[in-house]
Amino acid sequence: MNEIIERVKNLSIGFNSQKGKQISILRNVSTNIKKGETVGIVGESGSGKSTLALAMMGYIKQGLFPLKGECLFKSEDLLKMSSRQLEKIRGRKIAMIPQNAGQALTPNLKIGYQIDEALRLHTDLNKTERDKKISELLNKVRLPSPETMAFRYPHELSGGQQQRVAVAMALAGKPDLLLLDEPTTGLDVTTQAHVLELLRFIAKDTGTSMIYVSHDLGAIAQVSDRIVVMYAGEIVLEGPARKILKEPIHPYTYGLLKSIPKLSLAGLPASMPGSQPQPGSINEGCSFYDRCNLATDNCKKNSPSLEYIKELDTNVRCFNYKELINQNNNLQTSITKKSNNSEANEVLKLKDVSISYAKQKFFDQLLNKITDQNPTVKDINIDIKKGETIALVGESGSGKSTILKSIAGLLKTKDGQIKFENDRILSSDLKMRNPNDLRAIQLIFQNPDESLNPNHTVEQILSQPLKLYFNLSGEELKKNIIDLLKKVRLGEFYISRYPRQLSGGEKQRVAVARAFAAKPDIILCDEVTSALDVSVQAAVLNLLQQLKEDLGTTYVFVSHDLAVVRAISDRVAVLYQGRLCEIGPSQNVYKFPSHPYTEVLLGAVLEPDPDIKPKLVAEDIVEEKPPEKGCSFQGRCPRKIGDICNSEVPPWQIGENGNAIRCHINIEELASLQQ
Amino acid sequence: MQSNLVTDDKQKNKLEKAFEILKTMASKPSGLIGLTIVLFHVVLALISPYIAPYDYKAISPNTMLLAPSAEHWFGTDSLGRDVFTRTILGGRTALTVTFFGSLIALLWGGLLGIFCGLVGGKIDDVVMRVVDAFLSIPWILAMLLIVSLLGTSTEVLIPALGFFYGKGIVRVARAATHDVIAKDFIVSARARGHSNMSIIWNEIIPNVRDAILVEGAMRWSWMLLGFSSLSFLGFGVSPPTPDWGLMISNARGLMSFAYWSVIAPIVGLSSLIIGINLTADAFAKALGIDRSTKAPV
After folding, report:
1. Is residue B107 situated within a structural domain?
2. A279 in contact with B, Cβ within 8 Å
3. Does some domain include residue B87?
4. Which of A150, A257, A312, A386 could form an SS bridge with A347, CB 3.0 to 4.6 Å?
């Protein structure tokens, strides 16, 4: 157990900038991986975690080169090996599971063939032995019906299944070390929990060492024995997983853990100020100095070295870690948010809304209608009160973004009405809406890289809505832009910057400012924090809440992340396959009795706590289409009671907590079942 | 203002940006060579009437087909005209016609392509099928028809060449627009209720401009070749105006014993085409590199 299979010694990796300066991305990293151990490498984007993990298999991205140090795999330096020598190690000794298996599998080769290829390369088995091995591997990664699975093409599999195939391929060569680069990041909540469970099983079963790279402390907490926390290319904290997650003694890890929204906490997570320094802009002193609330003058001048603390079995890079040792009960705190008064008027009503992506048939085109008996989104009834934050929650394909697009007028509804202020019907066609209604409803998108024009300065970006809706120009326009920037806590000097000169969080702030420029009544937020780092996410959530409290805006907040939704929303609507399952005040939706689907979702949430394991109650099958009859969740429901679920749409039941559940099971019975 | 805070990324004005792109282009040998050749030809076209040693149309039976000498650097042609004079003057018409032709091609092709890419649907279908139909007609036949109907004046040649070389730009501009309109900032502009014109002008053009400009530069060199082909066939510039295509055409019969009268215009024409091609390549690279350097390092 204590045999070290890979040792990284004083590794620095960097590149030459255009100005000819040598800039390091990894700085003096030393760590080692023991046999049978799972090490989680965690850090925000740009912290160097992937660079480190890839270097551990002897791979260095183009443009980068090792400056010093070595990566010893069983006492051989991978960084000095020729590509032929590396070929012998990769796949056989060290295997990798990529982030997006859908893109890593060859689309026009069958699954079985691809696994066979790995076996042929890395083992000496003959054809019949290999065939046996393939079904063994497919069994091991728990793919349904391995016999037929081998003859399928990657596109016939769901994302979770593709990831399982990637695991099977990696295991083909019986590697000593498995490298996992964000293997569950693109997956749905329930699938993610299932894949992690599988990985944990495989680690135990085969005794393979694993390096698990992720930005998600929740996922890391589920699989790791030891955690390495990276910041700005350095290891800042390293130690046993439980110690790191429960008693983080580095201010960055502490702040990071605090900034993760948790299912058990209703309020907003605390945010860390600032953002990670860019490579090359790191000066002398501690790289976390700017964001640290324990920082002293000493931290500015001298950079701390990694110090081993025997009692905690932890390495820490901080002068003042002792101050954190006794503070850790504070991890379970959050900022309470002002909730709105429930007497407020309804500002937006969705009445029986159905949306179909089906192509119009020729005849329908003539009559300008859509005939689709089984639309993507069906019978959505939601009343949204002024000043509240309502969240639409569901996995991919639940129709949550579709509904958002319809409200914005980007997608026509099939049936039903969208009513705005005083029951005035809003056309679902953008061109039929009057400018004032367009102004009143604004959108914020998931990915600020795509939602901001890369060739516009911040000034140009923000002046678009101001010019369009308020006809501002000259000094007044500039004054308004600066006011907006101040509102989202950005300085005046951002005005002349281009999006590429901003960090992810700053970009999303600009996007928020653009939405608020229109002085909207309703802001539609489409997964606004899922492209951001955790510490930045907390800051954006806090900003949104602050703006709402100041300006009385209503949010429709779409997210797949139940913890984030819990933190920001007043009311939650849970969607499955475009049908509402449950709706109610958020503190009640997160309590039982729940709709079985809500139960599944809540069970699958990954908390950054090694003691809270996800409860896997339903299969992670992906359904392509909503069922034509009956309950939308019939295909996966762990509490299905019989034919009635397949034939009849369940009735709405109101629980005593005030949440409405759509299920055939009596609500009291549900409550006792779920206790 | 807090301008001192933003020393490294202060907003550059357009001239500075253009200068920077030129600098990047010139930083590689191929780009430097291309730029030098193009610059040389442009300067030559501007000053050649003032430095030409002889009258380009002076015919003299005494100086027919003289080999290169100190008096006639590139020799003389079959009518006794000085080849050096005619060569340095011969690029003027071609450069002017094709430069303005390319501009027209860029304008109509680019705008139509962007428009089709944005609106999509039926309009896009119809327009693109018409463009395809035109693409299937050999341009030189169509050009010959137009020229024989309307004459060979520059007022006819510029728009006609501009039209035929713009068809391809429609496709490029449309494809570039398709890449852009899937992005959320276009959806955002749409949801705000901006008009199509405003979206094209503010959101799309800044993002497709580079691709279209590079395509336009490539078209310029092709158009130059096309225009010279027309002259060669006798449908471009009419004699006695000096023109490379025409000169090659006139002298090609005498190539075996008076090679000098054909070599000079060939070198002139091909060097200019190569120069424009190299410049366009470097231009594309300079813009591409500019976009890929994201980190402010």
Report:
1. yes
2. yes
3. yes
4. A386
Asked if residue B3 is part of any domain, the answer here is no
Q: How confident is the model at residue A641 (pLDDT cuts 50, 70, 90)?
A: confident
Structure tokens at B286: 């300079």
**B192 with A465: Cβ contact below 8 A:** yes
Q: What is the band of B12 on the pLDDT scale with cuts at 50, 70, 90?
A: low
Residue B294 reports pLDDT greater than 60? no
Chain A residue closest to B179 (CA)?
A: A450
The pair of structure tokens assigned to A22 is: 């040598």
Residue B168: inside a domain? yes
| Closest alpha carbon to A214 in A331, A49, A405 | A49
* Nearest C-alpha neighbor of A613 from the set A42, A163, A197, A184: A197
What element of type H or E holds A471?
Answer: none
User: Hey, which residues 435-474 in chain A have their CB within 8 Å of chain B?
Assistant: 435, 438-439, 441-443, 445-447, 450-457, 460, 464-465, 468-469
Homologous superfamily of A4-93+175-272+285-331 in CATH?
P-loop containing nucleotide triphosphate hydrolases (3.40.50.300)
Q: With beta carbons less than 8 A apart as the criterion, state whether A601 and A574 touch.
A: yes
Residue contact B207–A497, C-beta within 8 A: no
pLDDT at B290: 41
High-pLDDT (> 90) share of chain A, %: 16
Q: Which of residues 476-535 of A touch B (CB under 8 A)?
A: 491-493, 496-498, 500-501, 514, 518
**Count of domains for chain B:** 1
CATH 3.40.50.300 in chain A: give the residue spans: 4-93+175-272+285-331, 346-524
Which of A321, A289, A323, A291 lies closest to A306, judged by CA?
A321
B20 neighbourhood in chain A, CB within 8 Å: none
- pLDDT at site A489: 85
Instruction: Look over chain A and give the mean of its residue pLDDT values, rounded to a whole number.
Output: 85
Q: Which CATH superfamily is domain A346-524 in?
A: P-loop containing nucleotide triphosphate hydrolases (3.40.50.300)
Q: For A114-171, how does the pLDDT look when each residue is reduced to its tens digit (9 = 90+)?
A: 999 889 888 888 888 998 889 888 888 888 777 788 888 888 888 888 888 998 888 8
Rg of chain A over all Cα atoms, to the nearest angstrom: 26
Q: How far does B191 lie from chain A, in Å, by closest CA?
A: 6
Is the pLDDT at B103 greater than 80, yes or no? yes
Range of the domain at B287: 21-55+68-292
How far is it, in rounded angstroms, from Cα A214 to Cα A30? Answer: 19
Q: Do A491 and B1 touch (CB under 8 A)?
A: no
HEC profile of A512-546: HHHHHHCCCCEEEEECCCCCCCHHHHHHHHHHHHH
CATH number of the structural domain spanning residue B38? 1.10.3720.10
Q: What is the DSSP letter of B62?
A: G
CB-based contact A493 B207, cutoff 8 Å? no
Please indicate if any CB of chain B lies within 8 Å of the CB of A578: no
